[in-house]
Amino acid sequence: MHALSIKTFRALGLAILLLTLGACSVNPVTGKKELAWMSEAWEVQTGRQYYSGQQQAGGGNYTLDPELTRYVKQVGNKVAQHAARKHLPYDFVVLNDSTPNAWALPGGKIAVNRGLLTELNNEAELAAVLAHEVVHADARHSAQSQEVGTLIAGGQMLATVMVANSDSNSAALQQGVALGALYGQTRYSRSRELEADLYGMQYMRKAGYDPQAAVSLQETFVRLSESRQQDFFSTLFASHPPSMARVEANRATAASLAPGGVLGEQSFASATAALRRRQPAYNAASEAGEALAKKDYQNALSLAERAISMEPREGRFHELRGIALSRMNRTQDAMSAYNRAISLDPNYFSPLLRRGLLKHQLNSFSEAERDLKASIKLAPTEIAYVKLGAISEQRGNVCPQAFNYYREAFVAGGQRNAELQNKLVALQSNCQPQAR
Ligand SMILES: [Zn+2]
Prior knowledge:
Distance between the termini: 10 Å
Number of helices: 25
Helix content: 55-70%
Strand content: under 5%
Shape: globular
Bound molecules: zinc ion
Largest sheet: 3 strands, mixed
Radius of gyration: 23 Å
Order of helices and strands: HEEHHEEEHHHHHHHHHHHHHHHHHHHHHH
Number of strands: 5
């Protein structure tokens, strides 16, 4: 049944695509004529729909420092005021992730990782990053990108959106994780990157910033992309490839703009002071993550505890500690660590999911169910649906409940896809009447 639905959605996607084809319009930023895949209403709706799931998938909000988020929003809004479509519902958030990255959803929803902020030297460089992302939204780059076009043509986005509107209450957030690959890793073409740099520099200059910061920013990126840290930066550089050509282009753009503008070194230093102070704690946490990957749980535990001793209010550190303890079969201690992580940041899906899985392992099914459902509300994952399906099955509620959970797990996508397909096919004949 499911495979059939996907096919139907695909056909629908193609039909809609064909209807949209030929709808030529003028790009609001460049003034060039181009093919418009989707309307502005679609951009705004898509951005709103995927925003929170994308934030969850990208590490969750950086809640420890609301002042920093306010600062980033303020700088972002300053440059967005000069966008060609300044009426878009722009928003800016800081994500709790050490990877240097930034992204924009259609309709102007923009995120910057904590790990990128620590690589910047002044407010004007931050303005350059945010203005660049503003242009990606303003000039409809991702709505125009071939990858999105292909996905729409394949009906995948439509399938996800339609499933999201189906019976399951969790589905409003189907989006984020299912489409995680789509926006976080949208690869813009060279010409889009140059365009985002060019117009971004115009917006930042109009906002009062020294456009020279876009040159120094690009130089930093080129240097980092050539350094040993390349792997660490690969996400950012895959979606926004740095190059000497961009440095040169930005230099020429800066020379063509009105001289002056501020760098804002002082304001940036004070806004990011707490973040920089916490950096050693995040470094210890990164090492704890590496130790976990190497199954060196004792070391992971000490590193997580070192991070906690430096910053006890960071929920991610307690979660890491919980993972290490759980791998060492210190289940009750792991549970306490997850409790702490959840109480410090109740709006991040990951510790809820881990606590739910641990409770499932301990056969506390009702409590597991509550956590798993709460995690799904924030970000749907294959594993949460699989365990909810197993709990339903165990209670004898195969049709429609377990079947529906397994179907959601299949849609969320992941390692168990083939296994789930077999399961769904096996259950299909029993469940079909009820599942409709
Ligand atoms: Zn870019």
